Amino acid sequence: MFNKILFATTASPTCDNAAKVAFDLELKWNAKLFVFHVLGVPTRGYSPFVTDARTGEEETVDPDYIDWVKEEMKNTYADLLEDSDAELCSAVGAPHREILRMARKENVDLIVMGAHTREEDVGATRHRAVVGSTMQKVAKAARCPVVIISRPCTTCWKLFSNIVIGTDFSKASYSAFLFAYKLAKEVGANLHIFHALDINDGRSGPPAAQEEIEAKIKAAREKIESAYVSKIKDFDKYTIDIWEGIPYVEILKFARDKGSDLIVMSHHTREIDPEKALLGSTVEQVVLRSACPVASVNKPDKVKDAV
Amino acid sequence: MPEGILCNKKTVDEKSQLDALLADKSGKQYYEEMNHLEVDSDALWAAIQKTCKSRIRTWLEICAHCGMCADSCFYYLANHKDPKQVPSYKIQSTLGELIRRKGKVDNAFMQMCMDTAYSKCSCCTRCGLYCPFGIDMGIMFGYLRGLLFSQGFVPWEMKIGTGMHRIFRAQMDITTEDWVETCEWMAEEYEEDWPGLTIPIDVQDADIIYTVNAREPKHYPEDLAEAAILFHVAGENWTVPSEGWEETSLAMFAGDWAACKMQVESVYAAMDRLKPKRMVVTECGHAYRATVIEGPYWAGLPSGQTPIESIHYVEWVAEALRTGKLKIDPAKKIKEPVTYQDSCNYIRNGGLADVAREIMGYIAEDFREMTPCREHNFCCGGGGGLNGIGRYRPERNIGLKVKRDQILATGAKLVVAPCHNCWDAIRDLEEVYKVGIRWSFLKPLLLNMIIVPDHLKPTEE
Question: Domain end: B321, B351, B385, which one?
Fold first, then answer.
């Protein structure tokens, strides 16, 4: 399922939890792992200066600097590299762009990232926005699944027993379903198909009547049956649930309830301004708060063979 | 040691030379070698006699030392009115002296000239507007840079930049394959949100040929995608050339006139090959000056014009808004106070001040002019290659103060800066002085504001 894995890292403690998962995936799936760090953000006009991706300091890119950063990466991952054939690589550029470029060039099957939420990683608010939106932009544009890890994940992927797929019935969500289904089947996990009915949904006035909510829940169940369950073959370890509420809260509650090892969602906002999208997106909220890894899948490229 | 390994009078035409320069951290060895670089006085004087024509000789001769140029120079203002920052003094003590001494100058003098030409003048040409005789020190410093380059006295980054142009016909190491691949990649990445979006390469007889700044495909290809989306929404018949797509000219900043010629000829060749009706240049100031204003002369075109009509991106935007090809959603206009950074190269030197105001009229509810503005606006502080030279970083950062104060005086927190170097300088002044402003190119702003016709929207099943 995973032949090539790209672990995009800030090469700092922020990504430690993600690193463990990435190296574990390499071993268990016998995959080729790229450990990839974007050194610094270049300017728009001509200049040799870059803003170092970790410190926010101004740096000049030259072979010394690149060697130094690679050495740092080696030290950071010394323990994990002992049993690994991972390739350490780096590039100069806007982080999301270089991660996407690398993923495209190597045609990777999975991108693993940290959630970039830890305080010590970033000096300034501006910088935090940069790393936060990196995840956002990579998740939106990547052709392959993107797994985002913020908390320690102690369960090996091969031993996953519960996978939650949160769908909003978008086209992108179907790709997310395919990924969750494919993985559940491969590792023998339970597949929990879940839809959160948004009771706010931008409306004003009194909350919806109970009959209306129940009718919507019924409709959602039918949709899941026809769009997803009909595609499932030789696999019966699935459940269907629809909860009403605020989507990210319901997904998180559901995942906790099921002892979920992985939440799979799609992330397909069309918002161009990353700052606005950052606040509005359900997947972002889930990533920030989830106890288990979150996979964002938006494109069919790597999962269409699941059915 | 008359000629160094890295610092010498040779041009950079081979990849190995370029790599050797790039491997020299911050130009340490390069500048050390420069201390021993011999001045070829005979060659220098011969070059002056051949190229220093009546205009510059007259300018140097008729300067009345009246000092009217002093307050026009942002370096003079930013440096507490230091008399050594008066433009006429700066040029008389360098180029003027060089000619008076008939090229018989030493290494120290040449280094002083280089330091002056790069860290005390961004070639913004504002002084020319204020001199009673119209003497333009910016133009003369551009000329001086050419003489310095021919003798090897050029900042390390500029030497690298010229090498890039000579080898790749771009300011960065981007091959034709890289460029074409980037166009395909961006079309692919955005086509889901914009059905039917393409970046057409090498289409014959298009209405528009679009050319860019190499940093866009290299680091910020979204810019290219944004341009494509706006052309797409406007219904333009456009194309990009597979070769001859790079508009910028670090060679112009460096004074490498032969490389300047090579670079613009690659663009003009694309025009001849594809026969488009017009060329649109991306949101870059010096690129427009190099390829549209100066370029025809470098290439020896008798008309003094580019082979086809060539316009800056702001001209295309204003036209698209005026003709209704792009329509702004009134509810999405910029509500907060916003100001506009006049790029010297296409406003003062290209006469596009009104065009910029026309755009702001369409997109902003509270547009605030800087003081001074339009042709009289100050350089951002990063022009003439200044953003990219480590050796002069402290001087550059002092110069940024003038733009900082201009922006703050408007009360606007958002600066529209349709020029790569202005964009950078404003970003850097925020980094250095932390005044709490934001800045943007036009493309991302427009994308948030335009009305997208229903037939161009994606369908979601």
Answer: B321
